[in-house]
Amino acid sequence: MIDLLAYGAFFLTVALSYAVICLGLNLQWGQTGLFNVGIAGFVAIGAYVSALLTTPHTPDRFGGFDLPIVAGWIGAALFTGLATLLVGALTIRLRADYLAIATFGVAVAVQLVLLNLQPLTGGPFGIGYIPRPFASLATDPSAFGFANLALMAAVVLGVYLVLERLVRSPWGRVLRAIREDEAAALALGKNAVSFRLQAFAIGGAIMGLGGALQAHFIGFIAPENYQPTLTFQVWAMLIVGGSGNNRGAILGAVLVWGLWAASAGAVAALFPTDQQARASSLQIVMIGTALCAILLLRPRGLLGEVRTVSRHLLAKPGKPNRKATHADST
Amino acid sequence: MRDAAAMIETRSVARHFGGLRAVDGMSMTLRRGEMVGLIGPNGAGKTTLFNLIAGTLRPSAGSIHIGAADVSDEGPHRRIARGVGRTFQIPKPFADMTVLENVLTGRQRQAGERAWVNFLRPGLVAAEERGAVAKARDLLDFVLLSRLADEPASVLSGGQRKLLELARVLMADPQVILLDEPAAGVNPTLLEQIIDRVLRLNAEGRTILLIEHNMDMVARLCSRVVVMASGRQLAEGRPEDVARDPAVVGAYLGGAA
Q1: In 3D, which of B100, B91, B89, B104 has the Cα closest to residue B165?
Q2: Do B131 and B200 lie in a common domain?
Q3: Domain of B113?
Q4: CA torsion, points B225, B230, B231, B236, in degrees to nearest 10?
Q5: Is the pLDDT of residue A330 over 70?
Q6: Which residues in chain A are closer than 8 Å to B125, comparing Cβ atoms?
Q7: Does B105 lie in the same domain as B82?
Q8: Looking at the complex, does the CB of residue A327 fall below 8 Å from at least one CB of chain B?
């Protein structure tokens, strides 16, 4: 029973770290319609930046600055946001499909850099000894697991609240207008390039934070963690949960990660040891099948987009109610 | 009217697409308070000229002026701040947003459109939003869409979408409104309502440039008509005079100059 609970805590912590990445994608795609197919690259940047900032000094590698974990997280978000801004400045004018190709190229380039720039990234062996939150509790696995789960949940909640405020504002409304019809948004005076760039960079910063959270929870990173499979998983999470809905992004992350973990268990149980490496491809098949099922049965995901954007309008749903305008002043 | 201030002026403006001279040296002036009709046979270059004035296209030659400013090289998103709003020939509603929020998007200079202000000054954003909502609801009353305020714009009919676009652009309080075929594909009842609203806007002092095929509508609305053919101005004057001009009649019958 304790084992099951501990596994549940471990599972949820990883799933919620994906939820952070998925929230970043939701701002880019769900809200603004930016087709980012390079998620793994931005997640990797965040993970490596935080690892370099927080690991102890290592002689044969750049850095190891031994900073607190929180500094690593903040640094990861800022640096990834900046990197995303630079990528965006070059590519954001591209039409959706070309932006997809460009971001995919960025992710491949990032992965190759991680693999080959050994003095900075540790090369194929990656970086180990990344400090883990609540390391002092490590002797008590269940206390350690639940403390990490609580911390991860708090971060997800914080990101969620920040995004909800951003998205349900006139700023978020402009993003949605640009997604729906850029020419019309321009005619209404909205500087589409600037807004898309903001959404792209903020979304990238959140993905970088997600990468850092994962790196510190696992304690070890390597280039092979940041393959296109990761990008595919996060996309599946957003589509299943409901693109355009922050709660959907979180729900989708938990469900798809659950399916991923369950299918890993099924592969381990059903196939002989020497076949398991090959059989693990079936995990991707299962996610793909779930994706198809959702697209056919609920094309807008489990939790669809909320139609009214502005939180200022939600206080008085339905018919015009001018009396309520006095009551909801905050 | 003749001596009123020029709101918009094009000077020998041209736009070429490869070898096609869609607009080929058009000079025209839109004066304060006027309602001008821009007519001409299909392919005359009306919509290209309209897009040049709205900033969607940059001129290949010549210049475009709003008031005293040369705006030839300014992007379309700068026009509304200069008081020039437009609608589209094929309406472009934000289909997955509610009718009310479509209109709210037209609001200008909202502090809440800067991301960080929503954290630093939430009270200001909420207060502005309340003001915007009150105005948007009045505009929805004006275009008879109040009852659909909370529906997604995708449920609107073609004519209702044209009315929604009108409300959305009015949210920005433009002094000049560029209307691209507001009557196309609209049923007669709704057409009368659109004509009535456009007349009221003009009576309030707004300057209007109207592209329209419906000559009857142009004659009812406009004091002055500019006729284009083959990218150039063919004629100009009062609707009833232009309609009798042999060159105009010839152009419509296929013998474009």
Answers
A1: B91
A2: no
A3: 94-155
A4: -20
A5: no
A6: 169-170, 312
A7: no
A8: no
In this structure, is residue B31 part of a structural domain?
Answer: yes
Task: Indicate the pLDDT class of residue A311, thresholds 50, 70 and 90.
Answer: confident
First to last CA, chain B: 30
Average pLDDT of the segment spanning B85-112:
94
Task: Show contacts of B70-73: CB within 8 Å, 24+ apart.
Answer: none
Residue A262 carries which side chain, given as an amino acid letter?
A
Cβ neighbours for A140, distance < 8 A, ≥ 6 positions apart: none
Report percent pLDDT > 90 for chain A: 68
pLDDT of residue B116: 94
Examine residue A172 and state whether it is found in any structural domain, yes or no.
yes
pLDDT surpassing 50 at residue B210: yes
A199 found inside a domain: yes
Largest CA distance in chain B: 65
Our count of domains for chain A comes to: 1
Mutation to test the B interface, candidates A312, A319, A323, A329, most B Cβ within 10 Å: A312
Residue B210 shares a structural domain with residue B119: no
Which pair of structure tokens corresponds to residue A284? 């991707």
Q: Domain for residue B166, yes or no?
A: no
Query: Domain count of chain B?
Result: 2
Q: Say which range, A110-114, B1-5, B212-216, has the weakest mean pLDDT.
A: B1-5
Q: What is the pLDDT of residue B126?
A: 94
Domain span at residue A120 reads 2-226
A182 vs chain B: nearest CA distance in angstroms? 9
Structural domain contains residue A210: yes
**DSSP calls for A221-237:** B-GGGGSHHHHHHHHHH
Chain B residues in contact with A305 by the CB 8 A cut-off are: 96
Report if pTM > 0.80: yes
User: B231 lies in a domain?
Assistant: yes
With a cut of 50, say whether residue A239 has pLDDT above it. yes
Which pair of tokens denotes residue B57? 């296209």
CATH number for the domain including B79? Answer: 3.40.50.300
| Lowest mean pLDDT, pick from A29-43, A221-235, A278-292 | A278-292
Looking at the complex, report in whole angstroms how far the Cα of residue B90 sits from the nearest Cα belonging to chain A: 11
Q: How many CB pairs under 8 A join A and B?
A: 133
